[in-house]
From TrEMBL:
Keyword line: DNA-binding, Phosphoprotein, Transcription, Transcription regulation, Two-component regulatory system
Species, as recorded: Mammaliicoccus vitulinus
Domain of life: Bacteria
Residue stretches making up the Response regulatory domain: 4-117
Keyword Repeat: no
OmpR/PhoB-type domain boundaries: 118-219
Protein's UniProt name: Response regulator transcription factor
Amino acid sequence: MTAKILIVEDDFDIQTLIKISLSNKQLGKIYLANDKLEAEQLLKNDHFDVVLLDLNLKSENGYELVKYFKNKDTKLIVVTAKDTDLDVYKGFENGAVDYVKKPFDPIELAYRVGVHIQSSHTHNNKNLKVNLDTTDVVIDNEKVNLTSREYDLLMYFIKNTNKVVTKSQIYEHVWGYSISVDDNTLMVHIRTLRKKIENDANNPQLIQTVRGKGYIYRG
């Protein structure tokens, strides 16, 4: 499962430095925002595991972006030249889990981001939230009950986010069969899973059929 990281930074050189340091560690998929408006659009449309936020965004209040976080599992790391104790305290009061002062060591920053990604044990995608520790599945803040097979099927899709998986691959990894025994079995399970986690099971946005190839879980 690939982590999503948003860098909100209006200094191109620093933005590039952070991106390179995180990319070298292969910590996840990296998104960039040059100002608060760009960051708002990204945060409204997607969930991010970690947000690296510069507070000096053309005199704008970077903390206003916190309200656009999809849920409380997003880890906010403040990266800024503001370094008074009051600034640090304000950062934590606004939900930050870490505070990095400029100038910073890019390697250390990458390690800090990695630690916060590893401490996250939830999968979030649109209105779906899965607690990987407790196996709880939540849709729009309402818990849904999956059968053991449905949960295993969902986990296989999540582990292969944005990859086309064939019916044979699904049977092998979820059912334990080396070949598909009954296509109808898989179709029934996917249909019931879609009814439980999709807003519209007839127009699925998460688990989509790829005609002639199999299925893909969009993340």
